[in-house]
Amino acid sequence: MNEKQRLESTQINPADKKSEKDFSKYFQAVYMPPSLKDAKKRGKEEVTYHKDFGISEEFKEMGKGRKFYIRTYGCQMNEHDTEVMAGIFMALGYEPTNGVEDADVILLNTCAIRENAENKVFGELGHLKALKKERPDLLLGVCGCMSQEESVVNRILQKHSFVDMIFGTHNIHRLPHILKEAYLSKEMVVEVWSKEGDVIENLPRVRNGKIKAWVNIMYGCDKFCTYCIVPYTRGKERSRRPEEIIQEVRHLAAEGYKEITLLGQNVNAYGKDFEDISYGLGDLMDEIYKIDIPRVRFMTSHPRDFDERLIEVLAKGGNLLDHIHLPVQSGSSEILKIMARKYSREHYVELVNKIKEAIPTASLTTDIIVGFPNETEEQFEETLSLYREIEFDSAYTFIYSPREGTPAAKMQDNVPLEVKKQRLQRLNDLVKEIAVKKMKEYEGQIVEVLVEGESKNNPEILAGYTSKSKLVNFKGPKSSVGKLVKVKVSKANTWSLNGEIIEEAVGVK
Ligand code: 5AD
Ligand code: SF4
């Protein structure tokens, strides 16, 4: 019996826990901490697809008169998980609220990618402690990637014992059970499966907005780059079936959504786990190309799996946008090797050339880590020279952060933090220099913008993004929100463009 079956077969009678005698039995059932050792395993078991999610009668009244609040950290995958959890809360009868003050349940949906992401969560827990003291009935939960880490769960158990529940990325569909147990139990409920994971379809969700939507196409990652915690926190690669994805995209199109982003930790590995069909991301994009939705993006790509079929399909254009986020991580083949990225600088450049040849308008953005263990000055300079050679539109840049349990965390590191910080600064200066140059080229040009709403700083100004993900602030009528419009760029800033609307509601495709 695996841990999931064991848990599901545990019939907990709430009355049991009241008697001391049976308490240990109950507690055992609600205490299932993560195991890094299990999370590392990759087996040959087929992925099981579940379509039977439903809210059983026993949970239906749980949320009546109660409000929930979810704070999300980290990537788009987490944002989308939050939409699913919000959907489950709503199905349980809870109502959403915009602040912690009047929430009856607060969840922190956490990110484990770097230490500073984790520090933010521990800081927030510090703040919430006071609230929990004031209102002991408040339920406080930690979920997301940090809950998959043994060290985090131990730290919460020891130092933040006021937390009521911890559950993992594979346990989201178990939220009704976890909440019920948390209401009944005086102890912290910990339910984190480290198993490889199935695919659960038909979970409810409340999407954040009516213009853009996330669509998961796959879960997990099998790449095991030596610095990265994701393969441990998100399990093995599991692709959703194409027909499920296509149906979801059709629904979104019918509901009037204008843009979708296909999501996965390594979207280029989409379909590699199918045993019965040979079907990849290129094939999926080719189907989605035919659907009447104006904009389709995908993220995040891994250069190793980015194949010719995908390039060929993207070259068709139409609703498939010409912006590709292609994390390179380093410009040094030696560092790439130690990172276990499984491509060299030369391979990366070759891939970019192929993309640019097939899609001349393509813009590229990337992710870069500086200060990987023992990175030399020369190796870092190779990153700078690659950046100059490719001329990325922009980049997310990070100082390497050791993640417990990953191979890189065990490496000796002779690069002082001060040097890492200087390298980050030097890289950021270059990123900015090239961004300024590229943005300048837009001055006087006409761009197509999907209007998202008022600009952050000025309600008189509207804001939206171009197909290449450039933020555009412009004067225009409020009626254009949710539409694709043409804007003439009057001024380029480093990270945004200013302009004026010249045409409302541009036709699709
Ligand atoms: N330290 C620093 N940056 C990291 N990333 C992933 N793991 C680490 C780490 N341990 C970066 C990579 C990845 C992005 C999402 O986060 O650049 O592409
Ligand atoms: Fe962070 Fe990665 Fe988890 Fe996203 S998948 S929340 S980036 S650790």
Polypeptide structure, described:
- This protein is of the alpha/beta class and 509 residues long.
- The chain has three domains: 3-45 and 54-191, Rossmann fold (3-Layer(aba) Sandwich); 199-438, tm_1862 like domain (pyruvate-formate lyase- activating enzyme, Alpha-Beta Horseshoe); 446-504, OB fold (Dihydrolipoamide Acetyltransferase, E2P) (Beta Barrel).
- The chain is 35% helix and 20% strand.
- It contains 16 helices and 22 strands.
- The protein has helices at residues 3-9, 14-18, 20-30, 36-40, 76-91, 115-134, 150-159, 175-184, 230-234, 242-254, 281-289, 308-314, 333-338, 345-358, 377-390, 417-440; strands at residues 31-32, 49-50, 67-72, 95-96, 105-110, 139-144, 165-167, 189-191, 199-200, 212-216, 218-219, 238-239, 259-263, 295-299, 323-325, 363-370, 394-399, 446-454, 462-465, 471-475, 484-492, 496-503.
- The strands form six sheets. It has a seven-stranded parallel beta sheet, with helices on both faces.
- Strand 6, helix 7 (150-159) and strand 7 (165-167) form a beta-alpha-beta unit.
- Helix 11 runs parallel beside helix 12 (308-314) and helix 15 (377-390) runs parallel beside helix 16.
- The protein starts with a helix and ends in a 6-residue tail after the last strand.
- Residues 1-25 have low confidence and may be disordered.
